[in-house]
Amino acid sequence: MERDLSSMVPVGTITSITRLHMLCPICGKPDWCYASAYISRRTGRKVVYFGCMRVQNSPQFVNGTDGQTYKYIGLSKDGQSGKYVPAAHRDCNAAEREVTKLVPVGIIDPLPDEEQDRRNRYILKKLPLEKSHREYLKSKGWTDEAIDWLGVKTWPADDWIRRKYPHRFRDYIPTRSKIANWVEKECGGCLGWYGSYLKPWKGQEYWYVAGHSGLCIPMPSIDGYIGALRNRRDYQDVDLKLRLDNGVLTFDDPSNGKGYVDWSGVHHGDGSVIRELNIDSKVINVDGKYRTIASWYEDAAARERGELRNSLKKGVRCLNRISVYGLEFRSNPMWIVTEGELKAALTAWFYRCPVVSLPGVSNVQLIANAATLTKAAQLGMKLMAVAYDMDKVSNVNVLQMEKKLIDTLRMFHVPVVTAEWDGTRQKGIDDAVSHGVRVSFHAPD
């Protein structure tokens, strides 16, 4: 590690690497991942380990971006991150047993996908798509017809931020409270729906929903249920006094003159990304473009007691899941797998074939398993095309995960090809097809 993190990472708690102002040594990225620590039973010393949200399954040893070697010790209990300890640690072979096992307390089970679908479809019919959101999608290669086919809508900002900045948001976009009220009264109740939780107010409680302002993207399962919803943030819900300056939302940036907000995030005046805001002595994370709409925020104090608790009352956690777009095109025997919902949906629309979206290139096990592949075969899949981003040319992790997916699919006797295009022109397959870049399919070595 580049610096001693022992004093900065408490035992049994999760500390975001964003808050540590460092890159994850496993994937080299500045967000999503975390550090934690345990006390070694063998040495009695504190050991810091990393949870990587992108590299969740890996060769036994990984060369870290900080120059150290790390040993992969398995998945976290929720299956969403891979855990890594420095290989130089004397008892790294026993590290998996050392990491605190949390006892779930008061965890609410999610409704089955059929019931999630009922609520999600109702909400999607009620929600509009704001003009600026439609224009953003069109700037990314979407046509009006494709947008309407996907059924993407606008997800509202938090009610309190709308009250604080009333001129920033459209009145015709329903409030979060109204959405929760619809689900509670018209769809069989909020309990167990991924977005909802009980919010305290003046000694009472009422149902409310989580998320960020921006796009609301359906996440259809391989069975055709809209089992969850995905947010693509537009960052207009940041607690800053924004003003429109020549078509750009700007704010006073004490460190750099004039900051600005756009679809890529919150920025200093020099263009660098702001990952955390300090507002009224509170640190607010503004990192991450995509998040599943789920009412889950882990109680850090409970973790110190060895418990897994949700700080949002009656809220529900949504584990990583695949989405499958274009099942109506399943007469096409070729299926494509890529990373990201909007990317997968646009690819499905262009190729008129089913496309699987993974929530990260390392989540191979979510598609390469007997149940999912058997279902895909029953739906007509005869060939799987892997279309990971072309930064695999320079990103060894993406290349490794592509090879792992290919090898695992072959293990299940699924014929595999890879999608290739000029990565110097466009990074993702959605950008390639929308900009007329030729995509070819090849049998991998």
What does this structure look like?
The protein has 445 residues and is α+β, with helices and mostly antiparallel strands. It has four domains: 15-101, no CATH class; 107-238 and 288-319, DNA primase, catalytic core, N-terminal domain (DNA primase DNAg catalytic core, N-terminal domain), CATH 3.90.980; 241-285, no CATH class; 323-442, 3-Layer(aba) Sandwich (Dna Topoisomerase Vi A Subunit, Chain: A, domain 2). Helix content is 22%, strand content 27%. It has eleven helices and 27 strands. The chain has helices at 95-98, 113-126, 131-139, 144-150, 159-164, 176-186, 300-304, 341-351, 370-378, 396-411, 429-434, and strands at 15-16, 34-39, 46-52, 61-63, 69-75, 82-86, 103-104, 153-155, 196-201, 204-209, 214-220, 226-233, 243-245, 248-253, 257-262, 265-267, 273-274, 276-279, 282-285, 290-292, 307-308, 323-325, 334-339, 355-358, 383-386, 416-420, 440-442. The strands form seven sheets. It has a six-stranded antiparallel β-sheet with strand order 1-2-3-6-5-4. The longest helix has 16 residues, at 396-411. It is globular. The two termini are 36 Å apart. The relative contact order is 0.10. The model is unreliable at 94-99 (pLDDT under 50).
List the helices and strands and how they pair.
Layout: E1 15-16, E2 34-39, E3 46-52, E4 61-63, E5 69-75, E6 82-86, H1 95-98, E7 103-104, H2 113-126, H3 131-139, H4 144-150, E8 153-155, H5 159-164, H6 176-186, E9 196-201, E10 204-209, E11 214-220, E12 226-233, E13 243-245, E14 248-253, E15 257-262, E16 265-267, E17 273-274, E18 276-279, E19 282-285, E20 290-292, H7 300-304, E21 307-308, E22 323-325, E23 334-339, H8 341-351, E24 355-358, H9 370-378, E25 383-386, H10 396-411, E26 416-420, H11 429-434, E27 440-442
Parallel strand pairs: 7-21, 23-24, 23-25, 25-26
Antiparallel strand pairs: 1-2, 2-3, 3-6, 4-5, 5-6, 8-11, 9-10, 11-12, 12-20, 13-14, 14-15, 15-16, 16-17, 18-19, 22-24, 26-27
